[in-house]
């Protein structure tokens, strides 16, 4: 399954079709995992928050979300550099869903109550690669902070 998804993500023709809903969610989840791992501390709070985000996005049960996270961890470990990976995701998901991805990334970045420089840099990179402006990303970050009951650092 994982090799098949990696093949569909990175080895197909230059004008790819949209991903299936499940494949797109696993690719998005892999971006969340990549962000969580970016500061070299992949904490249980980040794993749980990824599962919460995945469950909320598509109405999954907790066990389905956990399985999707595990699949995403495997995909993330095999995926190429962030630039190529994110560009592939951009080509395959709609713009409105990309804004939701940025919100999910900020949520993961703050899942331990603070954001690190590595995480912030990676969210900014991914936002740009997904075609999201810095302004829209910052507004999304503020919304996520409010929803999480946190204040900006």
Automatic annotation (TrEMBL):
InterPro entries: DjlA_N, TerB-like. CDD domains: terB_like_2 (cd07313). Residues 25-141 form the Co-chaperone DjlA N-terminal domain. It holds the Pfam family TerB. This is TerB family tellurite resistance protein. It comes from Paracoccus limosus.
């Amino acid at each position: 399954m994982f090799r098949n998804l990696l093949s569909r993500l990175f080895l197909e023709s230059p004008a790819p079709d949209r991903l299936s809903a499940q494949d797109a969610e696993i690719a998005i989840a892999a971006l969340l995992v990549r962000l969580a791992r970016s500061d070299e501390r992949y904490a249980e709070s980040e794993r749980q928050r990824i599962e919460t985000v995945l469950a909320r996005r598509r109405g999954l049960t907790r066990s389905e979300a956990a399985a999707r996270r595990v699949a995403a961890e495997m995909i993330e470990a095999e995926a190429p550099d962030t630039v190529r990976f994110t560009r592939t995701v951009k080509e395959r998901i709609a713009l409105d869903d990309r804004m939701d991805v940025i919100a999910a990334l900020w949520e993961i970045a703050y899942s331990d109550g603070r954001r690190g420089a590595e995480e912030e840099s990676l969210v900014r990179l991914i936002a740009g690669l997904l075609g999201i402006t810095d302004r829209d990303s910052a507004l999304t970050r503020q919304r996520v902070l409010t929803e999480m009951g946190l204040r900006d650092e």
